Amino acid sequence: MSVNCDRVRSHSWWKNVVEYGAWEGPGGARVGPPTPEAIDGIAKLFNTTADQVAVMVAADWYGVETDTHLSARMLSLTPVLDSLDEEDAELVETLARRLAR
Fold it and tell me: pTM for the full model?
């Protein structure tokens, strides 16, 4: 994970986050949140936007939730859908509505 985020966070930091989460590090020590400078690299790793990573950090480390009531699936698709031109977005919407029947 460290390599795929351009090493904005160390291997040990990722290991601690995966194994212990944001609040329960080794020996009870807290795993610190990523710095603002690390956000772009983490967004690259997760193939999402820096804004989405900032929302995740706010929720996981600070308990601040957005006012949206969207599913995790929808939140992960938002940057992809927003990047589409209108014609492609209409095609995706048509396909999604057809599959949802």
Answer: 0.67
